Input
Amino acid sequence: MPDVIQLLSDHIANQIAAGEVIQRPASAVKELLENAVDAGATEIQLVIKDAGKELVQVIDNGKGMSPTDARMSFERHATSKIKSIEDLFTIRTMGFRGEALASIAAVTQVEMKTRQAASEAGSRIVVEGTEVKLQEPCAVNPGTNISVKNLFYNVPARRHFLKSATTELRHILDEFTRVALANPGLGFRMWNNGTEQFHLEPGNLKSRIVGLLGNAYEKNLVPVEENTDVVNIHGFIGKPESATRTRGMQFFFINGRFIRNAYLNHAVTQAYDSLIEKESYPFYVLFLEIDPKRVDVNVHPTKQEVKFEDDRMMYAYLNAAVKHALARYNIAPSLDFTLNPEIQQLPSVQLPYTDRQKEETQKGYLYNTFTDKNQAHFIERKDSLKRWKDLYEIAKTPTTGRDGLHPSPNNGDENNATTIPSQGTLNTGAETEGKGSNNIMLIHGTMLATTVKSGVMLIHIRRAQERIWYERLLEEWNSQNTPSQQVLFPTSYELSPPDALLLNEVLADLARIGFDINPFGQNTFVVQGIPAGLPSGEEKYVLDEVVEHLKHEAPDTANKRTEQILAHMARRLSRNKHAIMQPEGQQALIDELFACSQPEYAPDGKKVFVMLKKEELEDMLG
Output
């Protein structure tokens, strides 16, 4: 049998390595920007053409390279950062694996010009598919100017899998934002197809956040500053009102390196517990400085995942730091046992109760039980039963009237009524048990229960409303006759640059369902009209949900984008609880639901109603 195992050629090995490091134009942007930072540059320029597919160019004023170093930089495993294995565990620079330029050169056409400040002439190198085509002296400013052209020109299959120009540009903006945030003391400029997108002057972190993400963040930043023996934490978090329905405005930096870590993200989110809505995400830009020996940054080719020596300790420190910042700036409630002496002298503090209130309190059941010695933990069982009966008397349902349907008045308090008669018949296709005896009951304000011939039907109110609104919006979409309600005071809606690109993509679709939105500046939009029926102020949540969906949209679901937008709209329009508080509204909800083409499922696929058959109910009761 002939031997079958053989060594790969350097060309193929480099292309395989490139597949790990260079996945899209944004990958090349990240590696080149990080190299410029490591080179000690104070001014870094990024030039993009055709979302990086045609050109990615990075120009810096760093220390540059000698002709020999320039040639060596394109070899695999060539690095100036590591000389021994111990260096790997104390690394603080960005690029150190020695794969970046070699991987980029394997799948692109690269031209690099570089010069050291002490040298009279620079060096120009042209590399195509790992093959050095040219190396010659040239005139160039001190620093490095590297151009990456025609990404994946020699790997057509990989180029075919690149996404649209908008998607690729959004990824490039993400990488640019992360590097610029990590280095607020450096100047950055970015051009996209000949238009200057960013011009960031060196400054502090706050000015860099505002310059990158927009002026809307300026008034919502809360500083975080905690120094401990294990980790130093500094940066900014957003006030609860700045939380959005979209992810992506969360930035962690470990020793200046951007990372993703769901565990640490949970530590921050948990600190906002009860301050923001359940489906919202807080904004934060947090820097963690830790001994490099306590963290391993070489666990992933993109270096965006790390391993900590003690994850739980990092979680505790970070959670406490965020809570402390929120409490210090009077955003989160905190216990404070010291009061101003002037406040303590106020009559409302000195005399909180009148004599009559004191007497009534002292006669109460709880006061007597807890003030008598040794009685707090020995409440008699019969007394406990008595209290339970009192609660039952308060909460029991009203007695039915003489007709067996209508509840009797309860001191004019309509909220005490829990059984509400229907005003019509249930259009479910099944006959009711008896004419005129069809009841509808509101359960905990979230479900309706109604009797049918075979048993009891439970209807989820919000999901039913979503289904009704979804089909109504779909009908208007197909007829292209969606009414738009002009707002009295147009509102501005500012987004981060990557999110603004996504919203621009769907402005036409949003206009078709009743939104009147126009671009106003680079990353700002003005909302002048909203769909009829959408409560004022809800438009921001709808747009947030649309942008969040577009971020995670699979390539093969673009044709279902309309359905998703309509589903988000239906979810917001269905939050009207007042419509089902009256019998007429409840019956109308049921009638409209069963007039839908698909009443059984909500737009997200969840069940709208269930049937409990009479036999199942009897089995439950034995």
